[in-house]
Structures are given as C-alpha cells and as structure tokens.
Amino acid sequence: MTLEDELVLLRPYELGDVSAIVAACQDPEIPRWTSVPSPYTEADALEWLESDEEETFAIVDRSTGELLGSIGVRYLGGGTGETGYWVKREARGRGVATRALALLARWALTEKELARFQLRADVENEAS
User: Among 42, 30, 116, 115, which residue's Cα sits nearest to residue 69?
Assistant: First the structure.
C-alpha cells in the first residue's frame, strides 16, 4: 500500500532502506525530538523494521525514490491513533513532513476509520 501526492510517496519500508535509515538517524536532531536511540545502529534499524508497535511508512521523494524520512501510526485503542515522524536534515524546510502528515491523516481517518488522529511532538520543537 502506498500514499502519494505530487512530491512525496509513503510506502512500506524495505530491507534495502536500512543504510539510509541509519545514515539519517545519525543527525542529533532526530533523537533530540523523537524516541530514536542515539547512537543509532544497523541493529536498531533492523529491530525497528521488525517491530509491530506501529504502522510505519518510508517518506520518499516521488521522482527519485530517495528516502526523506519516516512517519507512522500507533493505534492507542478507542478509535484513536497517534503519529510521529522524522525528516532527514537535507530534506527539512521543503514541506515534506506537512505533505506526509496530510496523506497519512486522510488515510488514517478514512481507511482505518479512526475517530481521532493526533500528532505526538515535543512542544519545544517549533518546526513540528
């Protein structure tokens, strides 16, 4: 299953994404604002990809296939879902997270029939 607009594509992760995930998560801003561990290793990426705690999608550039970030839904019960995301340093400031969030929210509220879809972000993370 994929979701897309003119610029970004959300798709399931593949094992071939591991090195790009590890490289992106070396940026200290990602663990600062998320639950991503630091330092982040290949073993961390593989464990995360095998986890079923949330439904997670790779955010990729639709034209090049380059991994730009990650976004997912954690189902909290009672018709509520929570989302969190990260975007690699080189892709920030281009509206990638905004586009991914709009695609995911529409899907979660219509296809998954969630009654509430909430963003999990640190209040000091002004960009989010």
Answer: 30
* Contact between 71 and 117 (Cβ < 8 Å): no
Tokens of 10: 């959300």
Placement of tokens 């607009």 in the chain:
5
Give pLDDT tens digits for 56-93.
999 999 999 999 999 999 999 999 999 999 999 999 99
C-alpha span between 72 and 37 (Å, rounded): 17
How many residues are recorded in the chain? 128
3-state secondary structure of 96: helix
Lateral strand order in the sheet of 67-77: 3-4, 8-11, 55-61, 67-77, 80-87, 116-119
Own/partner pairs for 31-38, CB < 8 Å, 24+ apart? 33/86, 33/121, 33/122, 33/125, 33/128, 34/84, 34/86, 35/84, 36/86
Q: Any idea which residue has 């954690």 for tokens?
A: 74
